[in-house]
Amino acid sequence: MYNDEFKEYHYSRGETARDEYSPVAAPVEASPQVERGPAPRQGLGVKAVALVLVCALVSGLCGFGGAAVYGAFHTNKTSVNQATQTAEEVAVTVKQVESGEKMTPAQVYASTVNSVVSINSTGTTYNVFGQQSQSSSSGTGFVITADGYIVTNQHVVSGADTVQVTLYSGQTYAATVIGGDSDYDVAVIKIDAADLQPVTLGSSESVNVGDTVLAIGNPLGELTFSMSQGIVSSVNRAINVDGTPFNMIQVDASINPGNSGGPLMNLYGQVVGIVSAKYSEYSSTTVEGLGFAIPIDDVTSVITEIMESGAVSDKAYMAITCGTMTAEMAAQYQYDVDTGVFVYSVVSGGAGEKAGLQMGDVITKLNDTAITSRTDLTAALKSFRAGDSATLQVYRGGSYVDVTITFDARPQTTGTEEQQQQPQQQYPYGYQTPGMDDFFRYFFGNRG
Q: What is the pTM of this model?
């Protein structure tokens, strides 16, 4: 007899034995012999399943135990960084607007759109054959005083014969160009009107990367008084346009031709910059998410001076000629410094000579601002006016010396605005770069 755990199978075998399922069963005389036959298939499958379950259980227990042992010896090996800085602590490092009430974009638009104007100008141009033709351009501006002074970009009204201003109300006025400055790309125009709504000037110093900003203008010269919104992508972004350096507020708000001269505003309805679409174009390449605005703090005094005298007359002037120091120059003439501004000459009796600057000096710092090129120096000088003093770090004769300079007033330039904007003819702050190969050979003699 074979006893299975599920069923019993009876086998009785002898010499005369018959199968128990035979119709006639003969009695078995001999003592019964028990023989174990082959195990049925169902029993094998069940055992296999049981074996797998046991193995899985043992494996799980081993894994759990191994993990426990590993954890006991490696509790400090792997960790996840958790934020510990609170929102209050972060806010301490963010510049705050000192006054005003924060508004929604819709409220900012409603409170400032009457201060924004559309500008259309016409001028005379000449082709390469000297033939005359009329040109027109569009831009934006904003009211700075109730009696009709309006700020815009210099390039919006440069060379214009006529300038027309349209208010949000639809009223149109002929405007007079009071003056402008291409180094700052700022101009002031005037219309004969009263009781206008001027903007509120904020501070670009309070602008943070990530702040929400708004621009109202006339993109394409047709979509008048449109508002676009974005965030500040960068502050003090140094860019160079036609040889003139600018420190800009970079934004990702949509800025297009026609937006030039319009206000860039914060959520307090304050103007923190002057939008300039001209610098939002890159080598005629279409770009997205790139716009620029001139920081209002950089041009507030310029605007005031243009309103009062029609021009900026007290620009800082060093009375030197200079150029960018290069690695090739340093190697050729055995200088230990390969960046900065090389002084080619000093004007007799000028600010540079009075400060003790000499031909061959390399200016490497203006106050705390590092100077690596002529562009750096030009940009840094925009923060100074005639009569201001500053400290220059100068490389001379293998060592560094500090000199104090008191700036002269920059002489008034002559010629047309178009000529001044040509890089090869424009020498901002009295700088120019003559051909210097023969000069270097003469000045440095046998040094190289």
A: 0.64
